[in-house]
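Design review, sub-item: ligand-bound model
Attendees: FS, YL, KQ
YL presented the inputs for the magnesium ion complex:
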Amino acid sequence: MKSLRTIALKEAQSRISPEVKAPAAKISEFFGVNVFDKKKMKDFLSKEVYEKLVSAIDQGELINLTDANQIAAAMKSWAMGKGATHYTHWFQPLTGTTAEKHDSFFEPSSEGPIEKFAGSALVQQEPDASSFPNGGIRNTFEARGYTAWDPSSPAFIMESKAGKTLCIPTVFVSYTGEALDYKAPLLKALAAMDKAAVDVCQYFDKSITKVNASLGIEQEYFLVDLSMYNARPDLALTGRTLFGHMSAKGQQLEDHYFGSIPERVFTFMVDFENEALKLGIPLKTRHNEVAPSQFECAPIYEEINLAIDHNQLLMDLMEKVALRHNFKVLLHEKPYAGINGSGKHNNWSMITDTGKNLLAPGKTPKNNLMFLTFFVNTIKAVHEHSDLLRASIASVSNDHRLGANEAPPAIISIFLGQQLNEVLDEIEHSRISKKIKEDNALWLGIPKIPQILLDNTDRNRTSPFAFTGNKFELRAVGSSANSAAPMTILNAIVADQLVKFKAEVDKLIKKGEKKDIALLTVIKKYIKESKDIRFEGNGYSQEWADEAEKRGLSNIKTTPKALDAYVSEKSTDLLTRLNIYSKRELHARHDILLENYYKKLQIEARVIGEVANSMIIPATVAYQNSLIENAKGLKELGLDDAALSTPVSIINKLSQHLAIVKNSTDAMLEQRKKVNTIEDTREKAIGYDEKVKSYFDEIRYHADKLEQIVDDSVWPLPKFRELLFMK
Ligand code: ADP
Ligand code: MG
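KQ shared the predicted structure:
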């Protein structure tokens, strides 16, 4: 029988890409055609309801059921006009992917079958979702959670060959009102940030009534041929290779980064980009990444809630479209040991309804005081709550990446670039003069900030949180993550910081201090207090780990411990005070994340056992037997020990590695059984990390040695060179 590997290799070499054509010559002509956007709302709704819907989108106003009925009818006409037969509430449960439950518009009635979509069905749906993770919040007898419409993210049509579905972005909550998804807490954090930022904006510009966070998400991913993927049980079941020796060529030549995109990949990219553009996802950039077979795409930034919905949708879309091209998209943070992993850089800033980016330095000193206010408050927030931010990016898969000498370390620090560092140092050491006239006061208090900062972006890629000219870039987020988790936390901690800032400034003003001087005084204090989080050097170096320890910064390397920050007194106080999570929700979430952590390790451990026992060991034994035959034959011919030494030494080597693979796999199984009996979720997660996962490297090391010795034609798993370099 031919091995799956042999078949896969053959199939991968004879792929023909499907033909890909854009729906129109210009992107602008088909961008957003599958989105029920403002323009279509206007066409399909009465003026009055349209205006109400717009204020629901922009200002968060509530919509009553009568209006919802009209909106639902409009959505239905539009969607059916485009061929949709079903609708679904689309949501983001804590499994990490997106979820849908489709219902048909079709309904029988006394006058014959009709197509219906009521306002009540638009506003709320029960997804019958008793098996989504809920961390004990929703007992099964309490029945189900429900989804509720989020008008701020427009409905869209998902197309597939077999049919079209109207998707309505929603939050997912339990009947008792607790959030069971990523979107609900994000919306709350955004509301808190909006309010806090608008309050602070009043010092500078009374016309500002709304502040939106903006987000541009760079998405890294790997591609692998579908047949090769299916021939690797580890990839197929865990998203990463648990075995595999690095190929002779890796990324050392750095010839892949920004290199020309292979034709087959390019065709796939264009195909999924077209689909994404139809869904209103403003994809802009595509390129190769550092590792072989690694790529990146990035859209133009958007309002944050939409940006996150779009990223979730994009991940889903990429996977679907990839199958048409016989590719599998790997979104795992570390599919291959020995080469770079994948991240999801989150470019974040705050933008007012007057169009001002609060993190962009301005022309005048007054503008710069405004910039400094938001800039320094962000730094201070991250300094105060770095552990919580670390928790928000923690996952079993991201553990492989953080601190792995190619991704930001697990130590949270901030990179500002030389110019802004100098500005902050200068303010810290300046004396704020009180007698200066209102007009030119700030020239003396604030150093000049160049309006266009040197682009630091590429000068320090080792920082987890870097300022890049007019935005911060959180680089520690994993490629498979839902950005809502870290963005909920980032916006929450900045909101909290801005509230505190305002209280301190107001206190000084009340004492008779001039406004600008009060602002500058608190800014100066914050610069001093948050200094330790700033780091400009090489984040990958051991020196930094040592220095960070001296500064008292945490370096929490694994997820179960990093997650503690979600339920610490400090975080609970902040998140409950801002109404983003209740205590119960925090504990539930903490539990779900821990459970998710050990369950994934459990699966990996099982796959390692299975692949070792049923693929690697048999292949090795088969090869060993052929060597034994060979040795016997040599002996029969009457050759001496010197001639026999070659097969015998290989047989010996194989036996040594085989023994370790077998013994360690058995020992790991024993440990797993023990750890499985632990009741406490956190202890169990730590048990899996320290007692089970600790075997992975040992088993792999010896299995990979075998891969290098055993006859290539009997090795069952596609090798790294085949996974990574086949075009
Ligand atoms: P790089 O690879 O140098 O980090 P990219 O151009 O690939 O840069 O990605 C930068 C991302 O940052 C893009 O999505 C871009 O739209 C986004 N971005 C630019 N300005 C802002 C802003 N003010 N707020 C949020 N994101 C922004
Ligand atoms: Mg970037």
